[in-house]
Design a protein that fits this description.
The structure holds three protein chains of three kinds.
Chain A lengths: L2 E4 L9 H5 L5 E7 L5 E5 L10 H5 L5 E4 L5 H5 L1
Antiparallel strand pairs in A: 1-4, 2-3
Chain B lengths: L19 H15 L5 E5 L14 E4 L5 H11 L4 E7 H7 L1 H9 L5 E6 L29 H4 L5 H6 L6 E6 L3 H19 L5 E6 L3 H4 L3 H15 L3 E5 L2 E2 L1
Parallel strand pairs in B: 1-2, 1-3, 3-4, 4-6, 5-6
Antiparallel strand pairs in B: 5-7, 7-8
Chain C lengths: L1 E6 H11 L2 E6 L7 H9 L6 E4 L3 H13 L3 E6 L2 H16 L3 E7 L15 H5 L10 E3 L4 H18 L2 E7 H5 L1 E6 L22 E2 L6 H21 L3 E4 L6 E4 L2 H16 L4 E6 L1 E3 L3 H5 L8 E6 L6 H8 L6 E5 L8 H12 L1
Parallel strand pairs in C: 2-3, 2-4, 4-5, 5-7, 6-7, 11-12, 11-14, 14-15
Antiparallel strand pairs in C: 1-8, 6-13, 10-12
Helix pairs in contact in C: 1-2, 1-6, 3-4, 9-12
Classes of the chains: A alpha+beta, B alpha/beta, C alpha/beta.
Chain lengths: ~80, ~240, ~350
């Protein structure tokens, strides 16, 4: 399961990532950031397949996707 | 995938959903990937992208409206080891700066020209631009652009492709992740060409303007797909110096 | 020092290269064509770059780009072309970029004539462009002075990080004289402010401010700079002024012709003298104001411009007790020495 990191201080709630996510992981929340925009957060992060579509379309570079670093035994299995 | 280091740790000055932000991000990613931030000199326009002055994390010059290609000529000629790009909107490049872009292209100046085409003047409040579509309403074409008096949207890639000197001319759109990735590949190709001294490259990026199109961010992407992209077909116009 | 017999325009170009100018962009317009032509032959030899821009505007902005990189840059034009470059001059002043701009003046307004004139004085000395900035302006009167002042212009431009204008004319540009050329200098890179590569943070060259308070602060700093010019950088030639009763004020080619007139008047027993501004900005107000009404009977301002333009500055600076008269030719007509001599005799009564 990938890590979806939203840099909420930069997000402007444009919704491009929400629309682009094939797994509907993201949603524009009611939380407001310093700029006064409702920012996005990964509601269903467990469904994330790390396709990065959200990060690629984000106009504010506010989405970071990190693949899980598999521990040794997970690599074996 | 993380936020590129070639943009500063601050919010951009652009409106929500403005694809300028995507254009800036993919350029910054390319600079990070090629490891050339110390060599970069960005020549910025007068228009919305003037707001990039607090955003780029490499050297930039903010010249006059329409004159970026001339400024970039001076920069590249005086510092050939630097990686130089111009970044202009449609009013900046196709209206007041048409002579500058034509002649920089015709001289084959070895820099990368990035052209942001959203068919409108953004910063000044939504006036008609040379690339405004037929029938498109703007603050100076209130009844919609009338071809009989205001002409047709200018195909800058097609125009510049008639010149012999340019090496690579292509048009992309930033309306979807897939197209953004293609645009980034095209931009990277242009920057690599510059590094190899191949000469003038021109990358047109179709973008939006939610504020002045009077649409929400998401609706502006749809409008782009239904109106801008049919008027401006994507693809390469010149590649490897040869008209495609 | 190397001695050579050179044409004015070419001497300017050669002295620019020797002063370390390594980028020139220009556009054809009479009567300054020899400058870009010379640069197109010699600049690459000196390891520099010559570009013929598609317009005076583009050429000026190429200089803007080159100057941003810390390179010594120059552009030149005549009258109309300088008008086209005024936006760029304003941008350079606003972005604190050094550059040398040469105006080889011609008759005007409009297309006017290609013969020499001094009709661009107001445009050049009152801040050639929007926003109320100012440029130091040098007015050579001989080919040797053209060489010396062009060299000095590069140093002053870099010292102040502001464009400097060399105001000459078609006559000085076309005439040939023997000149002593300065030793070639190797240009610096202005690492402290320019975008030339060095181990530093990212820098921005820009002239806009989002906060008007910052713009105001900038304007105040510039005002101090301009004031310092008045205090330290005025250059004026006072020729036979010690006992002069009839003073001629004239600059550039007119100043030179007036000097000959002074000599002829002195032979005729008239105590004439010449006050010739070499820097038009900063203007020698003090020297004019110090003219003593008890000793100086009348002043004649001679200029190749109708209506007079420097005349206004002279009148403003001169004591009101000294009568001031004007002799002007214009549109490309070069004032004659005899005209000045007879004007002084007539003035003398």
């Amino acid at each position: 399961m990938a890590e979806v990191k939203i840099l909420s201080q930069y997000c402007k709630g444009c919704g491009f990532c929400v629309k682009s996510c094939p797994k509907k992981v993201l949603e524009v929340t009611q939380e407001v950031n310093m700029l006064g925009y409702k920012y996005v957060s990964p509601i269903h992060v467990q469904d994330c397949i790390a396709c990065k579509m959200c990060a690629v379309i984000c106009p504010d570079a506010a989405v970071e996707i990190y693949l899980p670093t598999l521990s040794e035994e997970e690599k074996v299995s | 995938m993380s936020r590129p280091t070639s943009i500063k740790d601050c919010a951009s000055g652009y409106c929500p959903g403005c694809l300028h932000g995507v254009a800036h991000r993919i350029i910054a990613e390319i600079v990070d990937e090629l490891g050339i931030s110390q060599d970069m000199v960005g020549v910025m326009p007068v228009g919305c992208a003037s707001l990039s002055f607090s955003y780029w994390n490499f050297d930039s010059i903010h010249g006059a409206h329409g004159r970026a290609p001339a400024v970039a000529t001076g920069v590249k000629r005086c510092a050939p080891d630097r990686v130089v790009f111009t970044y202009q909107g449609d009013g900046d490049l196709a209206a007041i700066g048409l002579a500058e872009i034509m002649h920089a292209a015709n001289r084959g100046e070895n820099f990368t020209a990035v052209f942001i085409n959203n068919s409108i003047y953004g910063m000044t409040g939504g006036q008609m631009a040379p690339t405004t579509l037929e029938g498109m309403k703007t603050s100076t074409s209130p009844k919609g652009r009338d071809e009989t008096t205001e002409g047709y949207p200018m195909n800058m890639c097609g125009i510049l492709a008639q010149l012999d000197a340019p090496y690579y001319i292509a048009r992309f759109a930033l309306n979807s992740p897939q197209n953004v990735l293609k645009a980034k590949a095209g931009l990277k190709k242009a920057f690599m060409a510059q590094l190899e001294g191949k000469g003038f490259c021109f990358i047109e990026l179709l973008t939006n303007c939610p504020t002045n199109w009077g649409l929400t961010s998401l609706k502006s992407l749809e409008w782009m797909e239904q109106n801008t992209m049919p008027a401006f077909p994507l693809g390469a116009f010149k590649d490897g110096g040869v008209r495609v | 020092m190397e001695k050579r017999f050179m044409k004015g325009n070419e001497a300017i170009a050669e002295s620019a290269i020797r002063a370390g100018c390594r980028f020139f962009a220009g556009y054809p317009i009479t009567p300054q064509n020899e400058i870009p032509e010379y640069m197109s032959r010699k600049m690459t030899e000196a390891g520099g770059v010559f570009v013929q821009g598609e317009s005076e505007i583009a050429s000026a902005y190429m200089v803007f780009g080159g100057a941003s990189m810390g390179t010594r840059c120059m552009t030149s034009s005549s009258g109309l072309g300088i008008c086209l470059k005024t936006e760029a001059l304003s941008y350079m002043a606003g972005a604190r970029l050094p550059a040398v701009v040469v105006n080889v003046s011609r008759g005007g307004p409009g297309l006017g004539t290609i013969q020499p004139s001094q009709q661009d004085y107001n445009l050049i000395t009152n801040g050639p462009g929007c926003g109320g900035f100012s440029c130091m302006v040098y007015a050579p009167s001989t080919v040797q002075e053209s060489v010396d002042l062009t060299c000095k212009a590069f140093d002053m431009a870099e010292r102040d990080r502001n464009p400097v204008i060399v105001l000459t004319d078609g006559c000085l540009g076309a005439m040939m004289e023997s000149v002593e050329l300065p030793m070639p200098q190797t240009p610096g890179e202005n690492l402290e402010w320019s975008l030339a590569k060095s181990d530093r943070q990212a820098r921005i060259i820009k002239s806009f401010h989002l906060d008007p308070m910052d713009q105001e602060q900038f304007n105040e700093n510039m005002a101090d700079l301009y004031k310092s010019w008045d205090d330290n950088d005025v250059a004026v030639e006072l020729y036979q002024m010690q006992d002069a009763e009839y003073v001629i004020t004239a600059y550039g080619i007119c100043g030179r012709i007036a000097k000959a007139a002074v000599e002829e008047l002195r032979l005729g027993g008239v105590k004439a003298g010449l006050l010739r501004p070499i820097t038009l900005v900063p203007f020698p107000r003090k020297q004019l104001a110090e003219l003593n009404p008890q000793k100086v009977k009348k002043v004649l301002s001679v200029e190749m411009s109708i209506p007079g333009q420097m005349f206004i500055d002279v009148r403003e600076a001169l004591s009101a007790e000294i009568p001031l008269e004007f002799l002007g030719r214009s549109g490309g007509v070069v004032v004659e020495e005899e005209e000045i001599v007879s004007a002084v005799y007539k003035m003398k009564g």
